[in-house]
Amino acid sequence: MARLRSRAALRLIQTPSKVSASVGAADRAYIEALFLEYRTSIRNYVARMLPGGYQEADAVLQETYVKVLALQDLQPLRESPRAYLYTVATNLVRDGLRRHMRRKADQHECFEESNHTSPDPSPEGSAEWQQSLQQMKQALLRLKPVVRKVFLMSRFEEMTYPEIAAALSISTRSVERHMSAAMKHLQAELNELL
Fold first, then answer.
1. Alpha helices of the chain — where are they, by DSSP H?
2. 63 — phi, psi (to 5°)?
3. How many C-beta neighbours within 10 Å does residue 85 have?
4. Minimal CA–CA distance to 84: which of 35, 48, 13?
5. In the chain, at which end, N or C, are there fewer CB atoms within 10 A of the end residue's CB?
6. What is the pLDDT of residues 25-71, one digit of tens each?
7. How confident is the model at residue 170 (pLDDT cuts 50, 70, 90)?
8. Domains of the chain (ranges plus CATH)?
9. Which residues of 88-118 are buried (b: 16+ CB within 10 A; e: fewer)?
């Protein structure tokens, strides 16, 4: 929207016929003089309240001018022109912001469970996990003690086969056989979990 720069620009605004009829030439000149006097300060004031800054402020300033031109009674304007113009501009800003918020409410997205999954397991998932963990413990307890020890050192303590062999005083080949036996046993026992 073009900025209002002069008295001539103010007169170029096309106003509805009822506005032209309700405001006399003297009153229109008075309103134009007020706008020339307060235009910059109202524009700066309104621009601080609006997210669009000066572009939106120019539109509000023009709406303020049109509203004041449409007044039937100029007495409140004559009594306190600055306060009246600021009040009209403030009310227009509030109306605009309310409309903006309503439009944002219309753009609300519905909450869908699939789009907002929780990182925490569900109660059912937690129960299944506990059951699986219990089955794993039972399968490990059914292993021979040395096979179980080799498996736990390899998978949970992250030891290499030579380190396990040194810790248990057995050969690396024995560690490999025990791991193979543990893996076959656990695979057979926990086939439905995998």
1. 7-11, 17-22, 25-49, 54-69, 75-79, 81-106, 123-141, 145-155, 161-168, 172-189
2. -60, -40
3. 25
4. 35
5. C
6. 888 888 888 888 888 988 888 888 887 778 888 888 888 888 888 88
7. very high
8. 7-106 (1.10.1740), 138-189 (1.10.10.10)
9. bbbebbeebeeeeeeeeeeeeeeeeeeeeee
Cα gap 55→163, rounded to integer Å: 74
Q: Say how far apart CA 184 and CA 194 lie, in whole Å.
A: 13
Place of tokens 């903006």: 100
CA dihedral 11, 17, 19, 25 (to 10 degrees): 50
Mean pLDDT of 121-135: 83
- CA diameter of the chain: 112
Q: Is the dihedral of CA 43, 44, 45, 50 positive or negative?
A: positive
Instruction: With CA atoms as reference, report the closest residue to 2 among 85, 43, 62, 50.
Output: 62
Instruction: Read off the pLDDT of each residue in 79-83 and give the average, rounded to a whole number.
Output: 89
Please tell me the distance from the alpha carbon of residue 30 to that of residue 99, in angstroms, as a whole number. 32
Q: What angle do CA 100, 105, 108 make, to 5 degrees?
A: 135
Distances in Å between the Cα of 129 and the Cα atoms of 122, 132, 190 are: 10, 5, 13
